[in-house]
From TrEMBL:
Protein's job: Component of the pyruvate dehydrogenase (PDH) complex, that catalyzes the overall conversion of pyruvate to acetyl-CoA and CO(2).
Species, as recorded: Acidipropionibacterium acidipropionici (strain ATCC 4875 / DSM 20272 / JCM 6432 / NBRC 12425 / NCIMB 8070 / 4)
Segments forming domain Pyruvate dehydrogenase E1 component middle: 495-714
Tagged with keyword Magnesium: yes
One of the Pfam families matching this protein, by short name: Transketolase_N
Amino acids binding Mg(2+): 245, 275, 277
GO molecular function, one term: magnesium ion binding
All copies of domain Transketolase N-terminal, residue ranges: 126-309
Named cofactor requirement(s): Mg(2+); thiamine diphosphate
SUPFAM superfamilies in the record: Thiamin diphosphate-binding fold (THDP-binding), TK C-terminal domain-like
Name of the featured protein: Pyruvate dehydrogenase E1 component
Segments for region (Disordered): 1-24, 484-504
Record gene name: aceE
InterPro entries assigned: PDC_E1_N, PDH/Transketolase, PDH_E1, PDH_E1_M, THDP-binding, Transketo_C/PFOR_II, Transketolase-like_C_2, Transketolase_N
Length: 917
């Protein structure tokens, strides 16, 4: 047995270090409280104390801490409930049809030969939470002020499909294609809210735990951003996020609450379905998750509305003059509440009300059935309507509605409240019959007995008054939801002139590719039609990336403006915040930045306004730290540019292991929505960005994100060569520096060196060493994208495999190297797995060099020598390839290694040892 006398966590202490200047008076106050408790009872004393605290806080200067947790009862009393505006009988009939069809969607998906799974209990607990919103609150896309954005809980997707079935948007055939996207195509439905898989239906992917609440916060913030900047008036749009209480354990679920409060996102409402269960059991068996969440949200500055008990409890609470029932509710743990609902009314009488003779007396005249009929608040449409109404009327703060429900509600005793209910997907014939009877669904025993896995859906047809009511409510609210629309205004394309500046190179000045990109962005921002659509996103260290130059011009977005004098206000590049600022400076917050990127990158669909997010971050902290966010962005079909600054394993000298990125292109390659580039020079960046704008926002309208790795190592940026292979830059590789035969025989040995990003100068160094010291002529290729070369080659192979009648298209990399003489050596500032991506499509001998292993603090030349990716190392590896083929003497590689002192890290000299621009 769990000892019930153990105290719970202290949530509301009021610590103070102030001296007690009058102990006698203090004692009088304490004695007065004791006498009040003795004379009038604990409940009266509680009321007076709460009133005193509330009154003290209203003075403004007393600095009394707020109570973060209140009694385990509804926040809004029965006396303050709003009148319900809907036809209650009609809506009850709709909810019953939805319960049945949602359950049958999962039940039928378990038919023999299919068995694809599904979740039958989540939506059962949340029907009322959704239907009150559907019928009375959520504006569709045709609403005058624009539609609301609703983040549906992933496991509740069968309920959304069931509603679309009644609305006539989905057919029974499509419901039968649940979780069979390919085998039932074109009638398959994805398991969860996946916009990429059902692009005209779902708006937001939510099933990856924690991503939904995070993205909802930044969607609401972005709506305010668009409004404050004058891009689009989103002031009449509201963001709703439906979450599970177990999901709130995820750091992302709670980590952005302060952001929402700081920005006063009163256009945001979280609805947390508190059915007290995670996937395998209770959320807080020994505690109270509602109280914990209330404390967390109140502490973060949110408006909290608890909907714990249904209307049946109102007379009992009204009669609770001495607070015995409230006290019992406060002290009963979640594990017990779950157990109560897995039993019957007699059990609840004994094990709940029976804990106190005063509460037992309250129900002495009640039958067990009456006790069993007492519902939790999340199943009471009147309570939920009042909560939603209060949430939408709250100003100056976001709201969370904590709604208590039962997982598997109405599915029967085998499901409701059971630990295994999340994994239960099948109903027996008896379960189906009982479920049918409770819901009054006109399905016969014979139909259920014939095949339990083919229990029919129920749709009475468009002439039924319930269906007409349902459709009328959606018409009145502006159309269906969820619904995703793709039509949007065209993005004004910047003039070609904007891309020309960085193509001229940097003259004699050494400039890192990070700064080259920033210079290109400055030129693009001079285009008055294009510039308003740009959303620069920086988690922190804008100065590291040279983006502080934007502070005084486009300014940093802050919904409150700048109400202080910055310490650097006298400087030209001082920190400037403004209500209509354009830069989203999210602080040390990569996950939030990805959420902001997602909101901006999907504005073309959510708001019909194309925006171009440009998110720059420490390369190491991108796909490694926030990869799940980028997958969700890909699912939501976000567009925009992602800049991995200070990229590479060896360029960020001195920072050490955690900052040295040797693998982000590998991680980026795993995301099908990411188009990844590793440019070496500013003119390459110009062509890639222009191509990216064309692919994402031009006629092709592709749902991809462009990822560019840029470096902090300053080099002289060369002028774009005459007749440069612009197509090759975009496709992934081009011949940068053909080998010269000046000073060597025309029959000199040949080789090909492939390099990307910051490694290109080392390849050019190796080209020079090979010719000078060994008479070998090497061609140097700039590989702007190993990933795109691989994808092109894979597409060619797939075509040959699946459609041989179309012939075998030669992969781009194969075609470019087909006539290139000699072995190929590939190098980058990343692990060998990056250049190895193209190995199988390179004709002839292929070897790669890379920075495998952990990074470390040192000079750039020393690090490159340690990893053996510098110029001399490339030269030695090339000679080894030639020697293995018998094209040069066997001892040449050893001679070269000794000549260059290859095993001595202090002998390294490749690259710029200093400079942080």
């Amino acid at each position: 047995m769990i000892p019930r006398e153990e105290p719970g966590p202290v949530l509301n202490g009021l610590p103070t270090t102030l001296p007690d200047t009058d102990p006698e008076e203090t004692q009088e106050w304490l004695e007065s409280l004791d006498k009040m408790v003795e004379a009038d009872g604990e409940n009266r004393a509680r009321v007076v104390l709460l009133k005193l605290l509330e009154h003290a806080r209203s003075h403004g200067k007393l600095d009394v801490a707020a109570l973060t947790s209140t009694d385990y009862i509804n926040t809004i009393s029965a006396a303050d409930e709003a009148p319900y505006p809907g036809d209650e009988a009609m809506e009850r009939g709709i909810r019953r049809m939805l319960r049945w069809n949602a359950a049958m969607t999962v039940q039928r998906a378990q038919r023999p030969g299919i068995g694809v799974g599904g979740h039958i209990s989540t939506y059962a607990s949340a029907v009322t939470l959704y239907e009150v919103g559907m019928n009375h609150f959520w504006r569709g896309p045709d609403a005058p002020g624009g539609g609301d954005q609703i983040f549906y809980q992933g496991h509740a997707s069968p309920g959304m499909y069931a509603r679309a079935f009644l609305e006539g948007r989905l057919s029974a055939t499509e419901l039968d294609g649940f979780r069979q996207e390919k085998s039932a195509a074109p009638n398959g439905l994805p398991s969860y809210p996946h916009p990429r898989m059902l692009p005209n239906f779902w708006q937001f992917p939510t099933v990856s735990m924690g991503i939904g609440p995070m993205n909802a916060v930044y969607q609401a913030a972005f709506n305010k951003y668009l409004t404050n900047r004058g891009v689009k008036d989103c002031s009449d749009q509201h963001v709703w996020a439906f979450l599970g209480d177990g999901e709130m354990d995820e750091p992302e679920s709670r980590g952005f609450l302060q952001e929402a409060a700081n920005e006063e996102l009163d256009n945001l409402t979280f609805v947390i379905n508190c059915n007290l269960q995670r996937l395998d059991g209770p959320v807080r068996g020994n505690g109270k998750i509602v109280q914990e969440l209330e404390s967390t949200f109140r502490g973060a500055g949110w408006n909290v509305i608890k909907v714990v008990w249904g209307s049946g409890w109102d007379p009992l609470l009204a009669a609770d003059s001495d607070g015995a029932l409230v006290d019992l509710m406060n002290n009963t743990r979640d594990g017990d509440y779950q157990t109560f609902k897995a039993n019957d009314g007699g059990y609840v009488r004994r094990e709940f009300f029976g804990r106190d003779p005063r509460t037992l007396a309250m129900v002495e005249d009640w039958t067990d059935d009456q006790i069993w009929a007492l519902r939790r608040g999340g199943h009471d449409y009147r309570k939920m309507y009042t909560a939603y109404k209060a949430a939408t009327e709250t100003k100056g703060a976001p709201t969370v509605v904590l709604a208590c429900t039962i997982k598997g509600y109405d599915l029967g005793s085998h499901f409701a409240g059971r630990n295994a209910t999340h994994q239960m997907k099948k109903m027996t014939v008896d379960d189906l019959k009982a479920f049918r009877d409770r819901l009054d669904i006109p399905v016969t025993d014979a139909e259920l007995e014939a095949n339990p896995y083919q229990a029919p859906y129920y749709n009475p047809g468009p002439d039924d008054e319930r269906i007409q009511y349902l459709l009328e409510r959606r018409r009145a609210l502006g159309g269906f939801t969820p619904e995703r629309r793709r039509a949007h205004k065209p993005l004004p394309k910047p003039s070609a002139k904007a891309f020309d500046g960085v193509k001229r190179g940097s003259g004699k000045q050494e400039v890192a590719t990070t700064m080259a990109f920033v210079r290109l962005l400055k030129d693009l921002m001079r285009d008055k039609d294009f510039a308003p659509h740009v959303v620069p996103i920086i988690p922190d260290e804008a100065r590291t990336f040279g983006m502080d130059s934007f502070f005084p011009t486009i300014k940093i977005y802050n919904p409150h403006g700048q109400n202080y004098t910055p310490v650097d206000h006298e400087l030209m590049l001082s920190y400037r915040e403004a209500k209509n600022g354009q830069i989203l400076h999210t602080g040390i917050n990569e996950a939030g930045s990805v959420a902001a990127f997602t909101a901006a990158g999907t504005a073309y669909a959510t708001h019909g306004v194309p925006m171009v997010p440009i998110y720059i971050f420490y390369s190491m902290f991108g796909f490694q730290r926030t990869g799940d966010g980028f997958w969700a962005a890909g699912d939501q079909m976000a567009k925009g540019f992602v800049l991995g600054g200070t990229a590479g394993r060896t360029t960020l000298t001195g920072e050490g292991t955690q900052h040295m990125d040797g693998h982000s292109p590998v991680l980026a390659a795993t995301n099908p929505a990411v188009v990844s580039y590793d440019p070496a020079y500013s003119y390459e960046i110009s062509h890639i960005v222009e191509a990216g704008l064309d692919r994402m926002y031009g006629p092709a309208d592709e749902d991809v994100m462009f990822y560019l790795t840029v470096y902090n190592e300053p080099i002289v940026q060369p002028k774009e060569p005459e007749g440069v292979d612009a197509e090759g830059i975009v496709k992934g590789m081009y011949l940068l520096a053909p080998g010269s035969f000046d000073g060597v025989n025309q029959d000199a040995r040949r080789a090909q060196i492939l390099a990307s990003g910051v490694a290109v100068p080392w390849a050019l160094e190796a080209q020079e060493l090979l010719k000078r010291d060994f008479g070998v002529v090497a061609d140097v290729w700039s590989v702007t994208s190993w990933n795109e070369l691989r994808r092109d080659a894979m597409d060619a192979d797939e075509q040959a495999f699946l459609h041989p009648e179309q012939g075998h298209r030669t992969p781009y990399v194969t075609a470019r190297l087909a006539d290139a003489p000699g072995p190929v050596v590939a190098v980058s500032d990343y692990m060998r797995q990056v250049p190895d991506q193209i190995a199988q499509w390179v004709p002839g001998d292929y070897a790669s060099l890379g920075a495998d292993g952990f990074g470390f603090s040192d000079t750039r030349p020393a690090a490159r020598r340690f990893f053996h990716i510098d110029g001399p190392s490339i030269a030695v590896r090339t000679l080894q390839q030639l020697a293995e083929n018998g094209e040069v003497p066997e001892d040449w590689p050893l001679r070269a290694a000794q000549q260059y002192d290859l095993l001595n890290v202090n002998a390294g000299s490749s690259g710029n040892a200093g400079g942080e621009s």
